[in-house]
Specification:
four-stranded mixed sheet, 9 helices, alpha+beta
Length: 300
């Protein structure tokens, strides 16, 4: 089925049977049948429209930071948006393509003397992923600054959603419910002092480096924070910090992270996640819901 799309778009470069472990932050994951890095929303629209008519499965990925791709890989077409990364400013707004990194977007805002995005200075994801899941850190969330987003439906229809239509909640947006694709987002910010903005970004990045295992591959924060609890503390009190499962380990630096210490597989990650959930529930009757997005096929 994927051969047809290659023939339909001979001018585009597709990668066949490409290991997604080359692109995920965990350094795990099986192969994509077909992988492409589009450079414009027009290309994405053409691909989605064609795939919809041909019933070809499509999976959209941003920076692959808060993501686990199963070891069986992903069937059909995989689109990674990181080459769609333009960022522009107009007055008090910053507009960024879905594939732009959040870190680059915060740095752009700082240079434009715009404040409001400092909380996101160290979030490793893309703009699209951050809006999709309403990413947050250090008391701030994307929902506080995202004023609108251009999205695309699975068949290639383009829509603009205002803040209310994005229906943000804790690690949630309406984009998840409707399986739409973020194309770009506009952030409404305030005028600020660039030196003060940079100082705040530096402070938060220092905090992050001190508390999180940034030196090792990981999928970021694995679980959502359960009401009334801290995830890392629950995992610590369950006696699971430092536990190794294959090549994966509950981080000794922050128990809310699972790190790849020795050629871990996605299956190692998933088995460890399920074990943590079972033990924490058994000990505290608290269900840890995954924040990380898990996609793809099980290994055969």
């Amino acid at each position: 089925m994927t051969e047809n799309i290659e023939k339909e778009f001979p001018e585009l470069t597709f990668l066949k049977d490409e290991p997604l472990s080359r692109y995920t932050n965990t350094k795990t994951g099986g192969k994509a049948d077909l992988l492409i890095f589009p450079t414009s929303s027009e290309i994405v629209q053409q691909l989605l429209s064609y795939a919809d008519k041909q019933n070809l499965p499509v999976t959209i990925i941003g920076n692959a930071s808060n993501l686990i791709v199963k070891d069986g890989g992903i069937n059909g077409l995989v689109i990674i948006l990181t080459k769609m990364n333009n960022i522009v400013s107009d007055g008090l707004t910053v507009a960024a393509d879905a594939g732009a990194s959040i870190i680059a977007t915060t740095q752009f805002a700082q240079k434009a003397s715009l404040t409001g995005l400092e909380f996101a200075a160290g979030i490793p994801g893309s703009v699209g992923g951050a809006v999709f899941m309403n990413a947050g850190a250090y008391g701030g969330e994307i929902s506080e600054v995202a004023s609108k987003a251009t999205v695309m439906t699975q068949n290639g229809e383009v829509k603009e959603l205002n803040h209310e239509e994005l229906d943000f909640g804790y690690r949630h947006s309406s984009i998840q419910d409707h399986h739409e694709v973020v194309i770009s987002t506009t952030f409404k910010l305030k005028k600020g002092n660039p030196d003060q903005i940079q100082t705040r970004m530096d402070e938060l990045n220092a905090k992050r480096a001190a508390k999180q295992p940034l030196e090792l591959p990981s999928c970021g924060s694995v679980f959502k924070r359960p009401t009334g609890h801290y995830t890392g503390q629950l995992i610590q009190e369950a006696g699971l910090q430092g536990l190794k499962w294959g090549g994966a380990q509950v981080s000794t630096k922050h128990a809310g992270f699972i790190v790849n210490i020795d050629h871990a597989t996605a299956t190692d990650y998933l088995d460890l996640i399920h074990h943590i959930q079972a033990v924490v529930y058994e000990k505290f009757q608290v269900h840890l819901e995954t924040e990380v997005r898990i996609i793809g096929e099980d290994a055969k």
